[in-house]
Amino acid sequence: MDVTLHLAQDPEADELLGRSPLAALVGMLLDQQVPMEWAFKGPRTIADRLGTDDLDAHDIAARDPEAFTALLSDKPAVHRYPGSMAKRIQQLCQYLVEHYDGDASRVWGGVPTGAELLERLQELPGFGKQKAQIFLALLGKQLGVRPQGWREAAGAYGEAKSFRSVADITGPESLVKVRAHKQEMKAAAKAAKAAKG
Prior knowledge:
By secondary structure, the chain is mainly α. It is built from 10 helices and no strands.
């Protein structure tokens, strides 16, 4: 991987996301209940606080949980819920160490079909179906990982020229479009809930 991403809207954070499979996975893991840019800036912040140029699954998996939580909790915190996210990141890294020798790129490397890749992503701690489909779409649309049937496996997130998720963010303009789509979805869900009311 060596691609320029624009998810954090921060050059240093985006550079790390584009070259580090683990950073991209951690950013995706953090992408909940906080603004996208904040989530995807997290891997760079963690690497800086660890004093490294990249994230290492073996290192993070072996760290003292309390110390790692403190690292994520320092101001500015990496996430709104630094304690639970520290735990999830360590669980993700432990899983990668156990199943992929700590190499995040092996999750998708050489996988023949989109369906199998989706299954592998859903097995990762903290990755439900929707998060796995969004990450699959990101891999296909921006990182050149395109096993047979990847668009279908990614569901609506795999559609070309859609602006549904981080998979479609390539700069400030597309970020605005994705935000607008998310607002529409929230409004529709709120209206549907009120109609049932």
